[in-house]
Specification:
The protein is of the alpha+beta class. It has 2 domains: 54-188, Sandwich (Immunoglobulin-like), CATH 2.60.40.10; 194-318, Immunoglobulin-like (Sandwich), CATH 2.60.40. The protein has helices at residues 7-35, 318-342; strands spanning 54-58, 70-74, 79-88, 94-105, 111-113, 127-129, 133-136, 141-149, 157-170, 175-188, 196-206, 215-225, 231-239, 242-245, 257-260, 265-275, 281-292, 306-313.
């Protein structure tokens, strides 16, 4: 007749079984969470008006031929005269407002133009069209002269703006402005500088329950143009075993900064997937490689790559379960070994 198992080994087996049960239950819960897929959202595109269409292009002058926009290299206090052609290619009569505006890089990295409501405080005030509005019949072309007057105290460097034609459409509840803009860039004589800053960096790491589940890291920082020239910048975020390159359309999860105007500040957010959670420390490196965009000036400053390193502590909760289970097994094993040593053997 086999001898019954001692009480302590049964307790040991029970502790191991309880630990395995917790592991299996938590793994099943994680699998159920991972299998949940959010239903896609459908978007209905806005309908186009169809009746209204127009375009703008610079005229051919001694200043420039076959230009897609207006770019000047001027001294402080200089004045330049130029003109733009506006073509009505739609079926409706156009009554367009004409004015100059400041350009800026918004917080997401996109190029935008100040509206008439917000007003302009820089190059937009330098641009003076010969008319405040223009009437154009379908199929006709209007020539609009304008001047750019650089203030005597203008700061050296590139100043970006636009010449706008605006059609205001008044609806029952909302007024919508349709805008067409042609860029105007003035490089004021003086020392051109190129600078880029990386600040307000933050790293947040999210793990699964168990350390063998992949972790993810949310990286955020602010890219600033601290010089007086326009920049474009390629970005790279790296972590152990993972590289995230930027792309022009952000299809990789990280956007290539197409144009940073002077004084621009862009908020960058990226998520790095597939990180290991076996170690409690996660390190991420950010590299931004800027390039000066060619301007109307022959002097081109250079700029070096900017880098920063981030680290965070993130421990998968399952580690505590595993450690507690291992500690429990160790304690039970030690107690059983001690008891077996001090208990005299049974006599048959």
């Amino acid at each position: 007749m086999p001898r019954p198992l001692p009480r302590l080994p049964r307790f040991l087996l029970g502790a191991v079984a309880a630990t395995l049960l917790v592991v299996l239950c938590s793994t099943a819960t994680s699998a159920l969470k991972a299998s949940a897929v959010e239903a896609p959202t459908s978007f209905v595109p806005a309908s186009a008006a169809g009746q209204v269409a127009w375009s703008m292009m610079p005229v051919i002058t001694n200043i420039g031929e076959e230009r897609s926009n207006f770019a000047y290299a001027l001294e402080p206090g200089a004045v330049v005269e130029d003109a733009v052609l506006v073509r009505n290619s739609g079926a409706a009569v156009l009554d367009l407002a004409v004015y100059g505006s400041d350009a800026f890089t918004d917080g997401s990295g996109a190029l935008d133009i100040a509206t008439a409501e917000t007003g302009s405080a820089a190059i937009g005030t330098w641009i003076a069209p010969s008319v405040a509005s223009v009437h154009i019949e379908p199929g006709e072309v209007a020539r609009i002269p304008f001047s750019v007057s650089v203030p005597a105290d203008a700061q050296p460097g590139e100043h970006a703006g636009a010449l706008l034609t605006v059609l205001q459409s008044a609806g029952e509840t909302v007024s919508v402005d349709m805008r067409y803009a042609t860029r105007v860039t003035v490089t004021v004589a003086g020392d051109l500088t190129a600078g880029l800053s990386l600040d307000q960096a933050q790293l947040d790491v999210a793990t699964g329950f168990w350390p063998w589940e992949a972790a993810s890291a949310d990286v955020s920082y602010v890219v600033g143009n601290t010089g007086n020239t326009r920049l474009t910048a390629i970005q790279l975020v790296t972590a152990p075993g993972v590289e995230l390159y930027s792309s022009p359309d952000a299809s990789t999860g990280l956007l290539t900064l197409a144009e940073l105007l002077p004084a621009a500040r862009v908020d960058v957010h990226a998520t790095v997937e597939g990180l290991s959670a076996w170690l409690p420390f996660t390190a991420v490196q950010v590299a931004v490689s800027p390039t000066v965009i060619a301007s109307a000036s022959d002097e081109m400053p250079t700029i070096a790559q900017q880098q920063l390193s981030l680290s965070a502590v993130a421990i998968a909760p399952g580690w505590w379960v595993l450690l507690a289970g291992a500690a429990l097994v160790l304690v039970v094993a030690v107690r059983f070994a001690v008891r077996r040593r001090v208990t005299p053997p049974r006599t048959p």
